[in-house]
Design goal:
The complex is a heterodimer. Chain A is built from five helices and six strands; from the N terminus they run βββαβββαααα. By secondary structure, chain A is of the alpha+beta class. Chain A is globular, with a radius of gyration of 16 Å. Chain B has three domains: 47 residues, Uridine Diphospho-n-acetylenolpyruvylglucosamine Reductase, domain 2 (2-Layer Sandwich); 111 residues, Uridine Diphospho-n-acetylenolpyruvylglucosamine Reductase, domain 3; 111 residues, Enolase-like, domain 1 (2-Layer Sandwich). Chain B contains eleven helices and 14 strands. In chain B, helix 9 packs antiparallel against helix 10. Classes of the chains: A alpha+beta, B alpha+beta. At the A-B interface, strand 1 and strand 5 of A face strand 1, helix 2 and helix 6 of B. Strand 1 of chain A pairs antiparallel with strand 1 of chain B, so a sheet runs across the interface.
Chain lengths: 163, 293
């Protein structure tokens, strides 16, 4: 029986960026809090904390989600990708490089979420239209760029990744 | 940072265990599925249940499929999947369309169809097409299972006929008759992360591709405490040959069937005017689909 009952901390297993972590968490901790405070992965940002801004985006079992609205205990046993797991050792992921090259980063607070939403799009659809790109990042708010440079960066990355 | 209040967390492995926990906790527990609504309310301090019962390990609640001619959709199914499954896109296209405009892609990957129903928000996206299709919901508890027509389910904003120990397990839509078409349009200030100013779902069933209207449903959302039928619009359509003039007449009547409020999202007068526009557009699209075009 997989029943759990707990207000105290409980042990969960998370597979974050292909690494296994076993940690004790209180049920009222969100996945954002556990990634940042327990695992030290500060790339995941907390903005609004209410699912509106997308700064806390992570890829959970293949789908981008607002990690501020996921209880860490709900993610027990899941595969999670954060922004720290996107680059390969010291080489940026083509999306990250395109964000740098196209001026798609200003203050940078939305960037991890933008990159992860865009990555999930390109994994499914390597050649997206501008509309599809805008839709894919529509849960991620950016208050600096006006989105145009971000859309251009995603388009450029999709072209670079085909080569 | 918004901190969640403390609670005791349960994670039952099947439906009978989930029902038993809800019954034992005697109304002090809340179900958590995707968490996109309840966790927001808990962070804002609007809710602080002593117990949260997660239904994510109850696998039968994530199933979907044809059952005896009906389509049954598990309440735990995430909204994104409603836009992906062929059975929904082909058989219930207006539901797939409504699912595609709910929240944002990130929200749709967590929010569930059951959650969008039990929270009973007046502007919820999935109830209008489901009401237009005559959907029923299955409510389960240790006392048994009951089927409730969605038409009888909503009582007001946030209020439904569900008892505190009941769990919504399944949404059932009976097979729609031939020559049926439907549509859903949501009007908002922006396309994503938006709560509807007005939304309308319509469904038309003809007795033949070039025949009369056998059945019609027009559901208005965001213009009353719950999604409502545009009763006089439906009445004027049934039994008539569909013409542009008839659809326009129905649209005008729909504008008088609702009692919207003026709030930050839109004025009452504007909402009534938009009800007319969206009713006409959804009826036209539904008719086109019903005729097989």
């Amino acid at each position: 029986m997989r029943r759990m009952r707990c207000a105290m901390k409980q042990i969960i297993t998370l597979f974050v960026n292909n690494k296994e972590y076993e940690i004790a968490v209180a049920p009222n901790k969100t996945l954002t809090q556990v990634l940042r405070d327990d695992l030290g992965l500060m790339g995941t940002k907390e903005g609004c904390g209410l699912g509106d801004c997308g700064a806390c985006t992570v890829i959970l079992d293949g789908r981008p989600v607002n990690s501020c609205l996921v209880l860490a205990v709900q993610a027990n046993g899941s595969q999670i990708s954060t922004i720290e797991g996107i680059a390969e050792s010291h080489t940026l992921h083509p999306l990250q490089q395109a964000f740098v090259d196209h001026g798609a980063i200003q203050c940078g607070f939305c960037t991890p979420g933008m990159v992860l939403s865009a990555k999930t799009l390109l994994d499914k659809n390597p050649d997206p239209s501008e509309y599809e790109i805008r839709e894919a990042i529509s849960g991620n708010l950016c208050r600096c760029t006006g989105y145009q440079k971000i859309v251009e960066a995603v388009k450029a990355a999709s072209e670079n990744m085909k080569e | 940072m918004l901190i969640l209040p403390k609670f005791v967390y349960y994670e039952p492995g099947d439906m009978s265990e989930a029902c038993k926990i809800m019954s034992d906790l005697n109304g002090n527990a809340k179900i958590i599925a995707g968490g996109t609504d309840i966790l927001v309310n808990m962070k804002k301090g609007l809710l602080s249940p002593g117990y949260l019962v997660s239904i994510s390990k109850v696998s039968e609640l994530s199933e979907i499929g044809p059952v005896n001619g009906s389509i049954s959709i598990g309440a735990r199914l995430i909204v994104a999947k409603l836009t992906e499954f062929d059975i929904i896109r082909k058989k219930l296209p207006s539901l797939a369309k409504a699912a595609g405009v709910l929240g944002s892609p990130l929200i749709r990957n967590r929010a569930t169809i059951g959650g969008n129903i039990v929270t009973a928000r007046p502007a919820a996206d999935l109830p209008p097409p489901l009401l237009a299709m005559g959907a029923k919901v299955k409510l389960e508890s240790t006392k048994g299972v009951r089927d409730v027509a969605l038409d009888d389910f909503f009582l007001g904003p946030g209020v439904t006929v569900m008892r505190p120990d009941e769990i919504l397990s399944m949404i059932v839509v009976d097979e729609l008759p031939p020559f049926t078409g439907s549509d859903y349009i949501k009007l908002g200030h922006r396309k994503s992360l938006e709560i509807a100013i007005v939304a309308v779902a319509s469904r038309i069933t003809l007795n033949a591709p070039d025949g009369e209207i056998k059945d019609a449903k027009v559901i208005l959302s965001s213009v009353a405490p719950t999604a409502i039928h545009a009763v006089s619009a439906e009445k004027v359509l049934i039994g008539e040959k569909p013409t542009d003039a008839l659809l326009e007449k129905a649209a005008r009547l729909a504008g008088t069937d609702c009692t919207p409020i003026t709030d930050i999202r839109g004025g009452a007068e504007y909402r009534c005017a938009m009800v007319e526009v969206l009713t006409k557009r959804t009826l036209s699209a539904a008719l086109k689909e019903a005729r097989g075009k």
